[in-house]
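Chapter summary example.
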Amino acid sequence: MKTESFIPYSTAQYTEAEIQQRSEDYYHAIDQRRSVRMFSDKPVASSVIDNLVRSASTAPSGAHKQPWTFCVVSDPEIKAKIREAAEKEEYENYHGRMSDDWLEDLKQFGTDWHKDFLTIAPYLIIVFKKAYDLVDGEKQKNYYVNESVGLACGFLISAIHHAGLVTLTHTPSPMNFLQKILDRPSNERPFLLLPVGHPADDAMVPDIQRKALDQVMVTY
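The structure predicted for these 220 residues follows.
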C-alpha cells in the first residue's frame, strides 16, 4: 500500500465505558428526530446553514468524488416559485398518479398536495446529485452517485436535528422543475428537497412507532 499521499489518522480516544455511554446518548438524541411539516418562520442564522452543509459534505463518497451540490434557498420569490411548481406536481400525484395503496398508506400522515412549509420555512436546501463532473467542459466520471448523495443527505438530516432544528424529506415527483428554477447545469439532477427551520409552536407529528431492534437487525 502506497502511503506517500497519506497522513496519520487522529481522533479522540475513549474508554469502553465512554464508548458505551456515547452510543446510548446518540441513540436517545437521534430517536427524538421526527419529520415535521409544521414550520415556524423564525429566522435561522446563515452561519448555521453553512455548518450543516459542511457537516453533510463530510460524508463518504465513491472515489472521494463528492458528487453533490447543496442549493440553499432563502429568497421568498424563489421559494414561492418552488412551492407553486411542487404543488402542481403533487396535485397530479394525489389525483391520479398515486396508486390506491399508496394513498391509503399516506393517510396516517394527514398529507395532501398543499405544501405550506415550502414558503414558511426560512430555508430550503435542495440537494443535487452530479451524474458526472464537468472540468473545463470535459466529462469526468463519478462513482456510486446515488449511494454517495444518499449518505450525505443522512449526514445533513442528522446535523439538522443535532442543531435543534427540524426538517422534512420532500420529494415531489417529478422534480425536474427544481433544475430549471435554480438554473443548475446539465450534469446535476435534483435528489432531495429539505425545508429547514424551527418547528411551529403548535407543531404536531403523527403518533407512529419505529420498528424494534429485532425487526431491523440480524446477527450472525
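To summarize the output: Residues 49-199 form a domain with the NADH Oxidase fold (CATH 3.40.109.10).
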